[in-house]
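Question (not urgent): is this output format expected?
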Amino acid sequence: MNFIILASFILLAGLIARQLSASKKNRKKAEEDFWNREREANNVRKKPLDDLDYIQIPLETLPFHILTDNQQVQDCMEQIHSLRDLKVVNLSEFTNTDLKLKYGTANITVLSEYDQNFTLLVRTLYKWGSLLYEAGYKEEALIPLEFAISIGTDVSGNYKLLATIYKEKGQLSKIRELTVSANRLTSIMKNPILTFLSDMVSSDTDHTVK
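Got this back:
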C-alpha cells in the first residue's frame, strides 16, 4: 500500500515538474516574441493616418438645450464642444506595439492623444447621460448614452444605465442589442458587462446602477 502511495506521489511530482517546465518555456517564448515585435515596431517608418476611423460628434442631435442652468451638465456640454475640433479615435483594440507596427513609431504620441480624446469623450457622455437621467430626463439621457455605445465605449456604467432605462421602458429587445455591442468589446470590461446584461434580461429584479 505504501509503495502505491509513494509511486503515485512520484508520478504526481513528475507531472507537476513537467507542467512547470512547459509553463516556464511558454512564458520565455512569449517574452521573446514580445521583444522581437517591439524591436521590429521601433524600426517602422512613419505612415499616413488616413485609414483611421475618426469619430464625428453629432452636435446637432445631442441635447444641449436641457438643464443649461445645471453647472455639472454645463461642464459636460463644454467638454463635448471642446472635443469637436479635435481628432478622436477609438484605439482600444490595439497595443502600442500594434500601433507602431501599423503606423510607425513617430506617430505613437499623436495616436495616444487621439485615443485619450476618445476616453474623455465616452466618459463625458456617460456623465452627461447620468445627470440627465437623475434629473428625470430619461428620453434625453438616451441620446448621449446610445451615441457612446455606437462608437465603442467600454464604460460599464454606460451599459448599465442604458439597460436600466430600457428595462424601465419594457424594451428587453434593446438590452439584447446592447449584448451584441458588448460582444464586440476587446477590453477587460467585456465579461462583466455581458454578465450584467444577461442578468437584466433573465431577472425581474431591479438592478442598482453604480
